[in-house]
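Methods — Computational structure assignment.
A single polypeptide chain was analysed. Its primary sequence is given first, followed by the predicted tertiary structure written as structure tokens.
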Amino acid sequence: MKKLSLILVLVLLCGMMSVANAEWKPEAPITIMNYVKSGGGMDIATRKFSEVAAKYTDATLVVDNKPGSGGLIAADYVLSQPADGYTVFATTVSYVDSILAYEEDVDTYIWGFEWIDNIMADPYAIMIEKNSTVTLNDLIADKDGQIWCGPSAGGAKHIAALQFWGALGIEGATFVPYESGPEALMAVIQGQGVATVGNPGDVEGRDLKHLVIATKEKLATYPDAANFADLGYPELDNLSMWRGYAVKKGTPAEFITWWQDLCQKVTEDQEWIDFFAAKSIVVSNEMTEDFTARVKDDMLAHVKIMLDSELVTAEYVTAVEEACK
């Protein structure tokens, strides 16, 4: 009897180990929820991801969009769903900055997620109207209230502009927010502002040119464009916009491993690499530990920049610092 009981225990243990070690397999479509409109940077990335991922999985990936409120609408939707791996949040540094600018609860809207995969870095660029003769030194010397156009006050490109101003010593500048990135770019083309912060590919099909691109290596797509090192500010050649994926806290580790493995396969796919190289974007596969550290570092740095510009209160900065401990 004792021998039979021991055998039963061993069988049960082996079964439990097999289940624990089994690869996660989707049994229903996986929704990838964008917080941007169709055609936005993360939307394009996610739809391309779904296309390339089909080479490596039979899973059905459904790309959806719930734009509005700086990402809060999409975030609330993802957080309202079961933490089962069937809803993935497609997000960017701009979402993080929006949470800070709105002084939302970080424990809910940042740490309510697991930050599982950062898939790319899109360098920032300062752009001007294509016939403009303005130089970076002109912008630095102008103390009379120059206007820069951009999307959303407190968003990632606003924060990048503030970082550029602080490092370059640009004083008296005003950031004028527009409804969207394309509207801000058009505003510069129409002369409503002297410059804008965007990404290198934003000049395509528009009457814009790069004043400077924040990348250490010259881009093959724009070999003649200056970087900050060319202009004497090499410390600025590392500012970029990240885009990646998060899931609701509590999502099974088996799904996260499965998703990260899929991201790795996509990252190494030549179609994926070539597609984004043409857009001057560096692809990556930065997983949970490093990605979470990046989110935390960005929050702590950006919320202080916002405080200096009176976009948030000192009390909120303290709350964010506590939430990041």
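Note: The two ends are 54 Å apart (CA to CA).
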